[in-house]
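Good morning C.,

I know you're traveling, so I'll keep this short. The sequence:
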Amino acid sequence: MRGRREIHSEPRVSSLPVSDSSPGRQATDPYWVDKFNDGGYQIVMAMCFKDNVGSANYNVAASTGMVGPLMVASWVDDYQITGSTQTFRAGTQVILPDGDCDTIAISGLESIASQQVYVLPRWSTHHVEDDKSVQKGSFALRNGVTASAVVTMLMEGKYLPIYISPFEFPPGQTVFTPVPRVVFWFQPALAQSTMITKGQETTCEVDMSATASATISFDREGKWNRK
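The tokens, ready to paste straight into the viewer:
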């Protein structure tokens, strides 16, 4: 489940490798570089994720940055998970244990990998254990208290939120599956780790499941292309 991935962007050409350890690129036509920056737009990246109560989706702006002729994003398929009382609300930021909010309970982040379970019997204790009943490529939350799940991924040397459950799960077990799809779009004034809803008009969704690399670009006509 682990592997380094990168995305680079340069004028008209970009490559986006997606294997266990891969680099990638994304390109923007110079015309749009100036236009987007003048309008306060950023490049936004989100990671697709799936739980066992819904379809694959993305609901957190994992990374945002200034639009340039060359842009690079890198991440590693290295995950952490925590229980939380924060619920999904579009436009608000995901709170992590080191965040400044005293109205949200957070159980504590733990590293988690394929066929492992984050066990949360009560808010005062938690641990991770192996569970071969969880399918390969997935991990789970087994909660004895009502809780949301927040998942982070290692990006640019830091663990950043990529997913929050759409609601608090009642006691039980929920399975989570990272989906090998990355989504890009341009949007003004959006902070990293902000909860989002699907509905951006012009997105580029890159399926990484059957390839070790890909090339995408945003052309002068305002269209994403994959080469």
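Safe travels,
E.
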